[in-house]
Amino acid sequence: MALFKKQSKIGRDGLSAETMTKGARLIAAAQPKNPVSEQFRTLRTNIDFASVAKGDVKTLLISSALPSEGKSTITSNLAVVYAQQGKKVLLVDADLRRPTVAVTFGINDNHGLTNYLADANSDAQAIIHTTNMATLDVITSGPVPPNPAELLGSGRMTALISALRNKYDIVIFDVPPFLMVTDAQVLMSKMDGVAVVVSGGKTTKGALQRTSEILKISEAPVLGFVYNDQNQKKSSSSGYGYGYGYGYGETKSK
Ligand SMILES: Nc1ncnc2c1ncn2[C@@H]1O[C@H](COP(=O)(O)OP(=O)(O)OP(=O)(O)O)[C@@H](O)[C@H]1O
Ligand SMILES: [Mg+2]
């Protein structure tokens, strides 16, 4: 166990559905003084440093090789710590297959990204939901479509990303894993920066190698790696495991 005292249940498919049904645990919002929240702030600082080196990173995609490696937990907490800093932040649930953002932020209106992408007459503003943090907005996934990669690769998605990057200080995208489907790859070329979550205990060497090849071939603007220790045994005095170690690996330019 690492970040959380209670281990998440693993389904028969080997995946955790916890963040889809209960939402990601927003420790950065609930316990800003917890050492884990401090780790999220460190991640924010590292991204800001990488951003200075690369030019302004306003659109950031976070993925990992495989499912259940902590992408949604990290993207949502990262969005929170950026908002706590007063930045105008948008979190986009571009994981149209295993969405979490609506339930994480308690948004009942199911109108989201897929509604916008599938309807040429729809308005982008209608899918932007506010949250209880003044500077944090979210776009939920909307109903699961039959053709996620096609929608994410559409010209309409490209236009939406351009419009959003002008409205926010940072737009963070939660996407499916690199090795399962092409969705992350399709979106990568439209991003200023890509961060790769590596999970202690889950990400295998082979999976990481294949992911590195994909990133190289796609000439992805990789900022670095985020180490998520889902294995750590230690618990902090607050009852939370102290599991996130963020190592920003080599910075590769496009
Ligand atoms: N450092 C950690 N320590 C303990 N549990 C963790 C840690 N990071 C994530 N988890 C748990 O692991 C499970 C999977 O996390 P999460 O849903 O964020 O991963 P994901 O990569 O977004 O998954 P998916 O591929 O389904 O989108 C959740 O139950 C989450 O609470
Ligand atoms: Mg997820």
TrEMBL record:
GO terms for molecular function: non-membrane spanning protein tyrosine kinase activity. Residues 70-199 form the AAA domain. It is an enzyme of class 2 (transferase). Transmembrane segments: none annotated. The lineage of its organism: Bacteria, Bacillati, Bacillota, Bacilli, Lactobacillales. Its EC number is 2.7.10.2. The keyword Transport does not apply. This is Tyrosine-protein kinase CpsD. Residues 232-254 are annotated as: Disordered. Belongs to the CpsD/CapB family. Pathway: Capsule biogenesis; capsule polysaccharide biosynthesis. Keywords: ATP-binding, Capsule biogenesis/degradation, Exopolysaccharide synthesis, Kinase, Nucleotide-binding, Transferase, Tyrosine-protein kinase. It comes from Leuconostoc aquikimchii. It catalyses: L-tyrosyl-[protein] + ATP = O-phospho-L-tyrosyl-[protein] + ADP + H(+). Involved in the regulation of capsular polysaccharide biosynthesis. Autophosphorylation of CpsD attenuates its activity and reduces the level of encapsulation. May be part of a complex that directs the coordinated polymerization and export to the cell surface of the capsular polysaccharide.
